[in-house]
Amino acid sequence: MDTLIFSQTAIFRMQQLASCVYHTTGIRHRMATQEGMLGLLQEAASSINKDIRHYFDAFLMELNKRQLEMLEARGVKMRKPFSTAALTSVSPSTVTPIRKAG
């Protein structure tokens, strides 16, 4: 089993998510263990609470495709914008080119 490795920003977002889940549900998740992190992410992924979803989405925005695939392989359900199936099905016509300022 690969170790979960996240950037400092992603860890910060996960801590915000853990705090929101605790204040909303009263359930604490041990962030020091992989099982605790996965439990938090699985609970947040299945939550219908808009605040929890907001923090969960903010966490997912910090991840790269490989990290998203690893979480999906470990049973964390992703919504459409973040599932790897949705990431691979983006057509070039929907991508807006970046313009330089000036």
Describe this structure in words.
The protein has helices at 8-25, 34-46, 50-61, 65-73, 84-88. With 102 residues, it is an all-alpha fold. Helix 1 packs across helix 2 and helix 1 (8-25) runs antiparallel to helix 3 (50-61). The longest helix is centred in the N-terminal third of the chain and has 18 residues, at 8-25. It is globular, with a radius of gyration of 15 Å. The model has no long low-confidence stretch (mean pLDDT 83).
N-to-C order of helices and strands: HHHHH
The class by helix and strand makeup works out as mainly alpha
Count of helix runs = 5
Tell me what portion of residues adopts beta-strand conformation: under 5%
Keywords:
102 residues, mainly alpha, 5 helices
What's the layout of helices and strands?
Elements: H1 8-25, H2 34-46, H3 50-61, H4 65-73, H5 84-88
Helix pairs in contact: 1-2, 1-3
Q: Brief overview, please?
A:
This protein is mostly helical and 102 residues long.
